[in-house]
Amino acid sequence: ALRLEPTVVQVWLERGRAFEALGHDGPALASYERALRLDGRHETSLSRRAFLLQRLDRVDDAIAAYDRLLAVQPTAAFGLNNRAGLLAGLGKREEALRDLDRAIALVPGDGNALRNRAQLLLQLGRNDKALRDLDRAGPGHDAGAWHGMRGDALLALGRPQPALEAYRAALALKPQDRATLFGFGVAQEIRGDRGAAAAAYGALLAVDPDHEGALERREELLPALGRSIEVWPARLAGLWRSAGDSYERERAALQGAYRALWPQPQAVPAPLPIPPNPLAALDAALALDAFDVPRLIRRAQYSIGQPQREAQARADLRSEERRVGKECGSRSA
Q1: Helix H or strand E segment including 77
Q2: Rounded Cα–Cα distance for residues 66 and 33 (Å)
Q3: Do the beta carbons of residue 116 and residue 84 sit within 8 Å?
Q4: What is the rounded distance in angstroms from the CA atom of residue 205 to the CA atom of residue 55?
Q5: What residue ranges in the chain does DSSP mark as E strands?
Q6: Nearest to 190, CA basis, from 149, 154, 146, 225
Q7: pTM of the model
Q8: Per mean pLDDT, which range of 52-61, 166-175, 323-332 is the poorest?
């Protein structure tokens, strides 16, 4: 299709999609950019390029790509939602919140945008608004996370009993989730059930033995429950881990000092690197993407003058052979 219609945007777009499906991200990105050189306002090419940059974890480039998309199509709610996630990951929470507000204003029933905004509102301490968004959104594809966030919001609003119910629903789906286990323990403490709280912190420590919050809360609860002796195994385990870490550090330092004092064998020189073959590299790239225009141009430039270079090399070789022959003849005489 490219041979027949190289100036048709849709052809480059479909070519990019095909490369994406095959896992060839570089040629896919180049195809989308070629489409946008033909039509800088082509919305699908803009969105596919932004998606791909986001998937490649090129955060700044992806944000710029979504900026470009939204300049062309300000009502692209998915672009606002995705850019908000990238901005939140950079700590730009207020900017992310503005994008999510715009996305939800455009599509009020967008569950993903509502759940994303609820998560951001929880981080900002706006728990009542977070709970409202969660209830509007519903569980979606990750019900465990939704129940856990509801538990966090309810607990922060001083409602431990509904929070416990939300945490139980979350743990039924994700029994080892650290944040949910810790929240469950805190909610039990607030209700006055110290035994259940200590059990929750113990379950969390079984998953994450170094969880500082769980260690601190459990050590405070156990003496009040008449179980002070149970504090020591956890403390000893912590001391053992700390001692093991110190031993490894000291051992590494001693090994370094020993190597510095002891005569070291002469290092074997590394073999000289084989110079790259630019023609082979171009041919390999073009075998993957036969329509890579910059490489096609470089390949053509390389081919220009190749016969002359080969002829010169043969002449140089003959000249060297004659010189060596003369030297051998003079020595025998």
Answers
A1: helix 77-89
A2: 14
A3: yes
A4: 34
A5: none
A6: 154
A7: 0.67
A8: 323-332
